[in-house]
Amino acid sequence: NSRTMSLLSQLEKINLDSVLGESDNARYVTSKILHLVQSQGNYLSFVVLVVSLLSLSYCVSSFLDFNFCFCGGRRASVLVTKGGTQILLQLLLTASKDSPPNEELMVLLHTLLAKIGPKDKKIGMKARINGALNISLNLVKHNLQNHRLVLPCLQVLRVYSTNSVNAVSLGKNGVVELMFKIIGPFSKKNTSLMKVALDTLAALLKSKTNARRAVDKGYVQMLLTIYVDWHRHDSRHRYMLIRKGVLQCIKSVTNIKLGRKAFIDANGMKILYNTSQECLAVRTLDPLVNTSSLIMRKCFPKNRLPLPTIKSAFHFQLPVIPASGPVAQLYSLPPDVDDVVDESDDNDDGETESEIETENDDDKDQHFKNDDIETDINKLKPRQELGRPIEELKMYEQFFPELSENFQEWDLVSKEPKPFVPDANLSGPIVVPTAGEE
Asked: Alpha helix locations (H) across 326-427?
């Protein structure tokens, strides 16, 4: 309405005349707009006005009253469709140019991005294109002791890391090493920050490049040590999510061959087996046992049958073992050697390129979504071709007369067939009498 538009005009004028982030008038005008929108109860109008405010305002006061108002699922989704993600990323890029950046504004922008990020499947690509990808990472690097600022930044990095291209880019800039500075050594302070850092690290380690970097730095042993520390000190099982987060990181890093070897070398099988045995008595710790079992099954050495070692309950002896060749080599291997060739992570150089191609294909699908869907029913029907000529099949007609003879209704008076005329009043199935039936 006219009142709202008038307040928006005032806010725009304030932003042009006042110093960035220091206007009390902007806070007052924003509160008035919020009151009007909430009194109307119009859902779509609310989101549109929020987008308008984001477009107009760069001061902290313009966001404070809106911080918790469009965090709901539906409102966040509508905000994404209206371009809210792009506006927030642009504001983040503009605000980062100040030296030093406004901490309150950075906290608020990252909080909003963390809330609407899961609703926008393209937020990772948008952040990379806008140049906002490393802003959050640099804030974490320079403010490790400022947990109020680091927490929302990690939440945004967790959203960015779901895109493998972003994960590789962030890994090259040292994000993996940074996460290990946050999660270790063991401490029960700031457990919420610890949980977000573990979730972010697990997402980053899904990239094979980052997983190899973690193995080279010796972080597999560090993850096992952290897990054992939490297992010993969490006697009341209050921090099960943190313990599971550590296991998720181990699970991600063991997706590559080097990670599985590092896990075995660090005595990971024994560690997870012993901790799992101690968790069996507590039903709430079943997720830890299940994840540990998946990791151990994945890392256990694989062997081909027949097994000539003590690993097998049965000994399958080949009748003839050649003196040389691949079979003889397998039988000459020590019992603890994995004789199954693992090529799961040998051809991952095109990881980034494949992800970029996937993103480009997704963009094309937005415009040409249904072009490849066939709508002609005749073309969709499978063509049935006979395996033998029809002439050769006629010899079987005498065995299946119902497939070839022309059945007609029989006139019992004249003893001659008469043309069949269906009765329109009949609703049930029509039974045609056979010849000679009384």
From this structure: 326-331, 351-367, 377-380, 390-393
Amino acid letter, residue 406: N
Give the 3-state secondary structure percentages of the chain, helix then strand then coil, rounded to 5. 60, 0, 35
User: Can you say whether the dihedral through the CA atoms of 313, 319, 321, 325 is positive or negative?
Assistant: negative
**Each residue's pLDDT tens digit, 351-371:** 544 544 455 544 444 443 444
List, for residues 377-414, the tens digit of each pLDDT value.
666 566 667 777 878 877 888 887 777 666 565 666 66
Domain boundaries, the chain: 1-71
Quote the pTM value.
Answer: 0.66
* Alpha-carbon span 392 to 110, nearest angstrom: 77
Pairing of strands 409-411, 416-418: antiparallel
First-to-last alpha carbon distance for the chain, in angstroms, is: 87
Are the beta carbons of 245 and 198 closer than 8 angstroms? yes
- The single residue listed with the structure tokens 């403010």 is 143
Measure the CA–CA gap between 255 and 248, rounded to whole angstroms. 11
